[in-house]
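TL;DR need C-alpha cells for one chain.
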Amino acid sequence: MARIAGRFGRVEPRASARAYLLGLLSQAERKNCWQLAEQAGHIRPGPMQRLLRYARWDADAVRDDVRVYAVDHLGTDGGVLIVDETGFVKKGRASAGVQRQYTGTAGRIENSQVGVFLAYATSRGRALIDRRLYLPEQSWSADPERRQAAGIPETAQFATKPRLAWEMIAAALDAGVEAAWVTGDEAYGQDPQLRAALEARGTGYVMAVACSTRVRINSGRTPVRADTVADRLPATAWQRHSAGPGAKGPRYYDWAWVHIGTGEHRHLLVRRNRTSGELAFYLCWSPTTVTLAELVRVAGVRWSVEECFQAAKSQVGLDHYQVRHWTSWHRHITLAMLALVFLAAVAADAAPRRPTDPHRPASSREPISLTVPEIRHLLTTVFGPPVVTAARMLHWSIWRRHHQATARHSHYRRRSADETGG
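>> reply
TL;DR here they are.
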C-alpha cells in the first residue's frame, strides 16, 4: 500500500483500496463489491462501489506501480514478456466491450468481454503487468450512445488485439523492463505488423503460428508451408529438450529448427509431442545469434501466462467483478493484478537461494517452495476478518435480499412492458 498510497488524493479511497486488496487476498467466496464490503466490516457496499466507479484515482498510474513492483521482485536475467487474452463471460449487453465472441475461457462463442494482458516471467516468478479491454469495432467502437453509457473515453478507439499487445509491450520496454524476448500464441504470432514492430525495436520473439504458415527456405528463394518443412526433416534434425518444469517434472519434447528468410537470425521452430506426434510451429527472430535451447526455453515460458490467469481468477478474483463501466473494469482488474504480484513477490522472496537442477527431482524429504495459493492461505490467518456477530450477518442477509427483490421487480416490470408494447 505504501507504493500506491500517493495515487489517492484522499484518505477514504486509500482506506477502501487497502480493504479491497485484503478482500481480494481473503477466502471470500466471491470477490465482488458486496462480499468485499461485508469482509471489510462495512454495512453497505457503497465504499467499494465508489472506489471502482467515482473516487478520484488513476488506475493506469497504479498499473505502472504494479509493473515496477514486479520487476523489483521478479526481475533477473532471461526475462520474457508474454501476450495473451482471457475472456470474462457476462450476461446482458451493457458491460463495456461485451458481445458474443469466442473466448478460450469457455472454449466456445459466448457473451463475454475479452481482456488482452501482458505478463512478465523470469526464473523467479511470473505476474500480469498490463491490461487492455478489447473493444469490438462495429458493436462498440462505432456506437457513440453505447460508448457513452459505458463510460468509454473518446481516446479509446478500435484496435486489434495484436495492436493492443504491442502498445503494452512498447510501454513496458519504454519503462525500463529488461526483457530480451516476447512470446505469444497464434493470435499474435500470425500478425506481421507485431513481428515487424518487435524487430524494429530489436526485441527477439518466439511466436506460435499455424501449420499453414508459409515460410521461405533455401536462403529465402523457396516459399513452403511450415508443416511441409517439418515433414521433410530427417530424423537427425530432431533434438530432445525440456520446455520447462511442469506439474509432473520437466516437459520434454522433440524440437527442430530451420533457417528461413535471408537474415542470419530468423528460424522456424518445430515442436513434436513425443507420444502423439502432434506438431506446433513458431516463427523466431533474434538480434543476435542464439541456441536452439534458448528458443525452446522462450517457447516454454509462454505457458506462464496461463498460470497467471488461473492464479488471478482462482486466488484474487480477477473475474469476480460485477461492474459494467469502463473505469470500474480497469480499476478492479488493476487491483487484482496488484494482489497477484504481491503474492508472486512474497513467493519469490521466500524461495530458497540454493541452485536447482530442473532435470533432477527434489528430495522427497524437503517441502516444496511456498506457492501462491499457500501464501494466500497463510495471509488469511494473519489478516483474518474481524469476528462477525450474528446481528451483522443478519443485516447483510436482509440487505442482499432487499436488493435482489428490487432488481427482480425492475426486471419483471421491464419484461412486462416489452410483452405489452408499453
